[in-house]
Amino acid sequence: MQISLAVIDDDRQLLSLLGTHFENYPGFAPPILFDDGQAALQKLARRKADVALVDLLLPGDSGLRVIRRIAERGLARQIIAFTHCDDDATVSEALASGATGYLLKGMPLNELASGLIRCLKGDPIVSAPVLRTLIAKYHKPPPPSVAELLSPAELRVIELGAAGHDCKTVASLLGLSVATVYVHNKRIAKKLGVPNRLAAIVKFQQAGTPRPLAAKK
């Protein structure tokens, strides 16, 4: 049984190119070509497709809305967003609208055809740059720990503060002036995103940081 393909794109030159390619490609029936989203929805309501290849930048009715309508009405087994856009927000919105794949224009046509065949077998098809975007979105590096945000001198100051010492005692134990300890505390609070020394100490303790350093003799 041949694969029925619907291509929805307002670029008539691209439509003609895809029409010629898939008309002669093994395993595909002559594709149904649309340069208008509403016309595509009306036609697909009468004749469903195996795969709908949908441009996201359609005039009048956005490609995202067309994808959503095709998905809601079950007008195609697979819906592939076909676009030049690869930003995170557009990719996420297309997939949330019901797209089952996301391909970037400009890919070799034989590669496009083999991808559409794979998608009907249940394999997700996503262009490599888009896949990298998705992976980066869900695998962000962990934020730096409290200890990593502070300098060694700042760590010594907050560790002694967390041990219950006031600023004057901390200054004496570390051989610093009280003014220098105040400066350290101000920088510590700013780095930790809190308003004052006490809040910084609480955050430091909640972070499960190492036990306070022993005071210098």
Overview of this protein structure:
By secondary structure, the chain is α/β, with parallel strands linked by helices. It is built from 11 helices and 6 strands. It has 2 domains: 5-138, Rossmann fold, CATH 3.40.50; 146-206, Arc Repressor Mutant, subunit A (Orthogonal Bundle). Helix 1 links the parallel strand 1 and strand 2 (32-34). Helix 8 (152-162) packs across helix 9 (167-174), helix 8 crosses helix 10 (178-192) and helix 10 (178-192) crosses helix 11 (197-206). The chain starts with a strand and ends in an 11-residue tail after the last helix.
Which secondary structure elements does this structure contain, and how are they paired or packed?
Blueprint: E1 5-8, H1 12-23, E2 32-34, H2 37-46, E3 49-55, H3 63-73, E4 76-83, H4 88-97, E5 101-104, H5 109-120, E6 125-126, H6 128-138, H7 146-149, H8 152-162, H9 167-174, H10 178-192, H11 197-206
Parallel strand pairs: 1-2, 1-3, 3-4, 4-5, 5-6
Helix pairs in contact: 2-3, 8-9, 8-10, 8-11, 9-10, 10-11
The CATH C-level name of the largest domain is Alpha Beta
- Classify the helix fraction into a percent range: 40-55%
Give the class from helix and strand content and strand pairing: alpha/beta
Give the terminus-to-terminus CA distance: 86 Å
Broad shape: rod-shaped
Low-confidence runs of at least 5 consecutive residues: 211-217
